[in-house]
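Subject: GH10 domain-containing protein structure
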Amino acid sequence: MPGPCWWSLAALLLGLAVVQGRFVQSDDDGWRCKGFDCELVEMEQPGQRALKVSNRQHVLHGPEQTLTVEAGKTYHIAGQVKLLGHHTGPTNHTLHMIVEFTLPDGYKTSTMADSRHQLSPLDGWVRLHGEFTVPTATQGETRVYIAGPPPTVTFLVGQPTVTRSPRDPSWRNETDAVIRNIRMNNIHINVTKAPGMKDSDITILIKQTNKSFPFGTAVYAKLYNNASQAKYRDFIGKHFNWAVPERYLKWFFIEPVRGQKDYSDALNMIHGLRSQGLKVRGHNLIWPAKVFIQKWVQALSGDDLREAVKDHIEETMNKTRGLVEHWDVINENLDEHWYKNRLMDPDFDLETYRLAHSIDPNVKLFINDYAVVATGSDTEKYLAEALRFKEANVGLYGMGVQCHWPNNLEPDPYLIKERLDLLSQAGVTIWVTELDVWAVDENTRADYYDRALRSLYGHPAVEGILFWGFWDERHLRGEEATLASGDDLTLNAAGRLVFDLFENQWMTRETHTLSESGSAFTVRGFHGDYELHVMHKMQERTDLKQTFTLLPGADIRLSVKMTGY
Ligand SMILES: *[C@@H]1O[C@H](CO)[C@@H](O)[C@H](O)[C@H]1NC(C)=O
Ligand SMILES: *[C@@H]1O[C@H](CO)[C@@H](O)[C@H](O)[C@H]1NC(C)=O
Ligand SMILES: *[C@@H]1O[C@H](CO)[C@@H](O)[C@H](O)[C@H]1NC(C)=O
Ligand SMILES: *[C@@H]1O[C@H](CO)[C@@H](O)[C@H](O)[C@H]1NC(C)=O
Ligand SMILES: *[C@@H]1O[C@H](CO)[C@@H](O)[C@H](O)[C@H]1NC(C)=O
Ligand SMILES: *[C@@H]1O[C@H](CO)[C@@H](O)[C@H](O)[C@H]1NC(C)=O
């Protein structure tokens, strides 16, 4: 393994721009090349380019970019390379991805983020990826460069990305700081004693009784409406304040055969949920995925189809008027286009939102899609869609991000933040509408939920979080995604973690004895409803009990006047 000096010398000869996680497309795509030839070439996918590197003088020559990174943090770096040439047999070339840091006094040190050996042009595009931690002493520039094959070899380099690594533990502190900032406010308490009272005899209890942050689940009407499933219903009432009917409001469920409509499952459940104090999302009016469209609808076209859609939306919104707070008007509009195609109308979606908004201007309208936060293939497309809806002024309120994590994929707090940051550029509120992670081992699953929930709750654009079910007797993803098991809905490790977050760590309960806190003190509390209790000599002074609500962005001042009885 070559020493640091060897690499540094090479780095001096070379010359790139990556902003955290996103590739900046400038005229040169951020690349710098010194002492050899570089040329940007178009790749197979439109809009994507690669750098063609040729005529190097040394194995250590290679294109370079400057990285925007922070000392002490751990990053993941990835890029694509492809050797060019006409070799018919295997060759044994090596490609390194090297990251070089600048220390005080200009000293350089470097680390090999990844190396690939035995490469030949026959391998095509090869992914280089690895991790590095920026030394805490780093001052000045950090660079990455790609080098290694003999100078005569020409190669392509494409799309380097740098993201904070999911193994970088700072995400926890960072999300905690955001949570403290956006999900909490101050409760200032000022106690005035009556003459003769001692500070050590007075204790104030600040107890949150209800959280205002929306935290919910998808609910199965067949279970919920079944009187012998009271445990399911009770569990929902105990742990959640929002709900969404899993499939019972979808058109194919309500009207499988033309004219034979049945809203009773959905409406019974919605009334039940509301009587338990839960709020309800409506999901969904239209789902343009052909497999979920009834045969009779598929047989329609033109004005008949438009009319059927309009009737369905109007009747469903009429029936749920005042009962649901949200509607996912069109579900998964990014990749499913049956209605648009059938009607040959690219603006069918905008028209549908306009219609829904005119039927009930009070209900909040959402788009709702996947592969935008849990994975990122459609994040940019979703931003563009939100902007398109916003500009068309069709009454869009929010973006639903589904958040079904693929099997065994550990949620990456840095990617979640990066994707939410990008989506929030639309200036539209974000709701997590269908959360689940998948892991066989319940402790691993608990860790996955911990990463996901802290990252989501710890992002300012997120206004609510709903799970897509929780029980092993009924979960779309199977028991590997669940929080509770068996007829008694016993919490597993994932469930214990999740409800500890929402009912303990993210709820406020503090006691202050004046001899320790002073008679004027501050409690930083999570938003929601509260009770303040006053104890004097271990006895509650019920006459001094107060209730109040702590709202986002508004600190509260309370005074307690300790008169004698
Ligand atoms: C290829 O090169 C690497 C590094 O130089 C060496 O360790 C390895 O033995 C070589 N493999 C073959 C098949 O020549
Ligand atoms: C996170 O915060 C704790 C407590 O304030 C501190 O001890 C720890 O060093 C921090 N960790 C990181 C990775 O910043
Ligand atoms: C607490 O209340 C007393 C009496 O009303 C007042 O004089 C004092 O300034 C208050 N202290 C604080 C910190 O608000
Ligand atoms: C809890 O708070 C929510 C939101 O502020 C409110 O709508 C709901 O009625 C409250 N529930 C109870 C039981 O007080
Ligand atoms: C209700 O639940 C019970 C107990 O699980 C089950 O035996 C029964 O079939 C259910 N009834 C309906 C109508 O689904
Ligand atoms: C919906 O409600 C409006 C207002 O009450 C009514 O005019 C309309 O006919 C209803 N539409 C359907 C399809 O039920």
